[in-house]
Amino acid sequence: MQHSDEVNVHLSEQEQEMIEILMEDLELPSTDDVIRLLVKQEAQRIAVVCPSCGHYARKTQQDVASCNSCLSIINLSEGIWEVSQMRKQS
């Protein structure tokens, strides 16, 4: 599977105005930079970071996540993500 670094987005006038306000306020040079920043902020807000390796893990259930980098199974316990088991690599 090939990933592209380029995304084409058609913005409404109101969305474009919001982007321009953010560009000015955040002193970013381009629309692309604003979009990248917003995506990064949102990912950090909802992301589960693997306590074993530091990579992002994907939620598989409400309070369970799986890290594809180190193969850890991570559970949310009292507001903290903790490794419950490490899967063996094949």
In short:
With 90 residues, this protein is an alpha+beta fold. 33% of the residues lie in helices and 27% in strands. The protein folds into 2 domains: 11-46, no CATH class; 49-90.
Explain the layout of strands and helices.
Blueprint: H1 13-26, H2 31-46, E1 48-49, E2 56-61, E3 64-66, E4 72-77, E5 80-86
Antiparallel strand pairs: 1-2, 2-3, 3-4, 4-5
Helix pairs in contact: 1-2
Tell me about this structure.
The structure is a single chain. With 90 residues, this protein is of the alpha+beta class. The chain has two domains: 11-46, no CATH class; 49-90. The protein has two helices and five strands; from the N terminus they run ααβββββ. It has a five-stranded antiparallel sheet with strand order 1-2-3-4-5, with no helix packed on it. Helix 1 (13-26) packs across helix 2. The mean pLDDT is 88.
